[in-house]
Design a protein that fits this description.
The chain is an alpha/beta fold. The chain is built from 10 helices and 35 strands. The longest helix is centred in the middle third of the chain and has 21 residues. 43% of the residues are buried. The protein binds uridine-diphosphate-N-acetylglucosamine (UD1) and calcium ion.
Length: 488
Amino acid sequence: MGQNLTVIVLAAGGGTRMKSKTMKVLHRVGGRSMVEHVLSAVQAVQPQRIVAVVGHQREEVGAHIQGVVPECVLAVQEEQQGTGDAVRVALEAVGLIDGTVIVATADTPLLRGDSLRAFAEEHEAAQRAVSVLSAIVDDAFGYGRVVRDEDGDVAAIVEEKDATPEQREIGEISSGILAFDAAFLAEALPQLGNDNSKGEYYLTDTVGIAREAGLTVGAHAIDDAWQTAGANDREELAALGKELNRRIVSQWMKDGVSVMDPATTWIDSDVVLATDVMILPGTQLLGATVIAEDAVIGPDTTLKDCEIGAGARVVRTHGELAVIGDGAAVGPYAFLRPGTKLGADGKIGTFVETKNAEIGEGAKVPHLSYVGDAEIGEGTNIGAGTIFANYDGVAKHRTKVGKHAKTASNNTFVAPVEIGDGAGTGAGTVVRRDVPPGALAVSAGPQRNLPGWAQTKRGGTAQAEAAAAASQDDGVGIGESESGGAES
Ligand code: UD1
Ligand code: CA
């Protein structure tokens, strides 16, 4: 690509139609801000320098942009006096330059690097003073129109508000993305006026200036108008997000991922999927989620920044910053909070919530449990309805359960506490002290049975009748079969 290419990204406008406290270009689709999408396309062209023009909320927007592209030069446009003024500010920030300058807007998230590259290459090959990336659209309302002369050459770009009724019929629009010979741009900018319906310095007026100077001007029509579509309000943002998602899902299917219902599957731009991953309906894969081959995800599952191992199965689950091992099983109805790590072939089952929990290889937490701030060794089974009581009202504490332990149902582990390798617990145990390896911890008191309680205390009820009938049938007094009871 051009040895000497500068890209200017315009991001100073407020985006009032979003009706938002968040700047337009910071609104997100596909897991990235709009400006991040544009910067990623720009970076793919490997320009020599990138300049972003910021104005509204410059601290936030500038910090965000430099978070994405640290070497990006920021130029501050104090007052939004138009795109021509914005480019003037950008050129002032980098000083005298030559070569090619591309100006892009920051609100076109579907723009691709290869399109920008093709545009710049055509511009340079044709040795033009200015080129406009145009598109043929059904509804040109609001856009600048590409006006051509009788020979079909580009004569000018006329903004909607300044266009004649005939010009408004033109279906070829300016995308707002332009390419310039840097020397021409530097000469043309001071010639721009603001005597137009918006009272702004229009960058697009450079086209007319070049024509009058007898310089070469051209338009490069993009086939795929979505790439230059900008979002001005939330409805347009949603439409762009939907189209972006359609493209991402379609690309993953081409790359060997099965998606049962593309319409209810949402995949962010930065997600990575292996071949033969299977995605079931109602699934959102967000952020930096990575899924290994043969994993089956869904239905109705949301995973953000998660790592799922090969062949794992994740059903009706909400997960964030969790790592799930190969062949492991999760859900249905699991809540994986940050710091969850499940070993290979392990299980986090139904109605189980986990947080900062390392669960070893083959270990299982199958039912109705909360596992917070815990380490569970390999091969251990945690009984149904177990609460890892990590919070004493002031501070959080950790629980450690060793390898191949078998804890029973309805336990509470009061942290900090440690249950040794191969240890066990009885049902309903509240573990407050460490359990040595191999020991069985039982904390519930001995069971007492009060014989004939139903008949004496609930006389006349169906309960009492059933109890009386049962006592006659087997002739055994209730409670007599209990060993070790302390009956009176
Ligand atoms: C602009 C183009 C129009 C094109 C359309 C495509 C001009 C004069 N018009 O119109 O031909 O069809 O984009 O969407 O260029 N900005 C600044 N500083 C300013 C003004 C704008 O940074 O002073 C930024 C905005 O943040 C935005 C971009 O430039 O990212 C475009 O500005 P906008 O006001 O939306 O221009 P349009 O009227 O849409
Ligand atoms: Ca616009």
